[in-house]
Amino acid sequence: MSFYAIPEYIRNKVEQGKQFANFGLLFQKFYPYDGAPDYEKIPHTGSVKRLVQKYRAEFNLIAHKQKQQKDFLENRVHLASKDSILALSAKLTSRLVTGIGEVSPSEVGMVFDRNSGLPYIPAASIKGAVRMAYTINFARKNPDKVSGGTIDENDVDGLKELFGSLDTANASRGGFVFMDSYSVDIPQVVADVMTPHFSNYYGGKNPYPVETESPVPIQFLAVEKGLEFAFRGFFINDDAKKYAPQLMEAFNTALTELGLGAKTATGYGRFTAPSDVSEDIWLKVEQDKLRADERRRKEAEAKAEAKRIAEKKRRRSRK
User: Which InterPro entries does the annotation name (predicted)?
Assistant: First the structure.
């Protein structure tokens, strides 16, 4: 039997509610516990399935997030130039897990947008994966730079310009800003499962893994595959812009080979090759400019006509 460790008047609302618009808030604050009320161990895996049944995502929230980012990039184009932005689109070919290390009663966490409750991919996670992919691509093209299976980051052209450096003696800010990634359509959250076979060994109770241990199924939340995500960012200086083609290649490697989020070693977080949709934003900006020019032209014509009519009336009044 499950219960909610919250005041009764709130618990009644949670238990009666079939679905929640902000699922992230439900997952983080109103998780149902199973078993003894002393919170000794992980809640029963059935709690995850019951939680998924309360999941609901509003499309207008997704559309709002997408519009916010598009509007921002359009402003960047207005203020800078069309080559100052990068907008990509890719679909999940496997399930996605993000924030698996987040503190959660289910032991396995997941990250949700605080205000909308939508699952998303944080910009920092994308930057880390793309940075790794950028280094890998450079090493593949320049094997002479690799020694003992490693490469000095100072030898990687464009790495510092794009991603910055944490070197205390020569720290710098990266010239490309990554944005959080949100799905284009309503994301489907599902209950997935992992089965650790050597829990006592990993927990430090046994010095060695032994086959006599029973697997312990642990359920966790994941985003179902097939969902399209938008990946966006912008350049803040010309030094970084020079490496735009290499950055695009790094995005491709990160999404198709390395994966994003958690459990990438077991195939999670893989995407299709990204499509560059930056031109859609450029065209939108150009169309807005044309409409604005046309509006100003009509306003100028209207003012000129009004002035002409006023002058004509003034002349008549003098006669």
Answer: CRISPR-assoc_prot_TM1791, RAMP_III_fam
Q: Assess whether pLDDT exceeds 60 at residue 116.
A: yes
Q: Which residues contact 76 (CB under 8 A, 6 or more apart)?
A: 84, 85, 234
Per-residue DSSP letter, 258: I
Mean pLDDT of 276-292: 75
Q: Which residues pair with 172 in a beta bridge?
A: 165
In sequence order, the β-bridge partners of residue 55 are: 20
CA distance 36 to 42: 11
Domains in the chain: how many in total?
A: 1
Q: Tell me the per-residue pLDDT of 28-45, one tens digit each, with 9 for 90 and over.
A: 766 665 554 444 444 445
Alpha helices in the chain (DSSP H): 8-16, 23-29, 46-53, 59-79, 123-141, 159-163, 199-202, 238-241, 244-253, 278-318
- Please report the pLDDT score of residue 131 as a whole number: 97
pLDDT higher than threshold 60 for residue 5 = no
- CA pair distance 96, 169, nearest whole angstrom: 37
Q: Is residue 266 domain-resident?
A: yes
Q: How far is CA 241 from CA 16, 114, 237, in A?
A: 53, 32, 7
Would you say residue 296 lies in a domain?
A: no
154-190 residue pLDDT tens = 899 999 999 998 877 788 899 999 999 999 988 888 8
Residue 307 within a domain: no
Q: What is the domain extent for residue 130?
A: 2-289
Please, what is the Cα angle at 172 between 168 and 175, to 5 degrees? 155
Q: Is residue 63, in this structure, part of any structural domain at all? A: yes
Detail the DSSP E strand segments found in 76-129. Answer: 85-91
Inter-residue contact 141 to 165 (CB < 8 Å): no
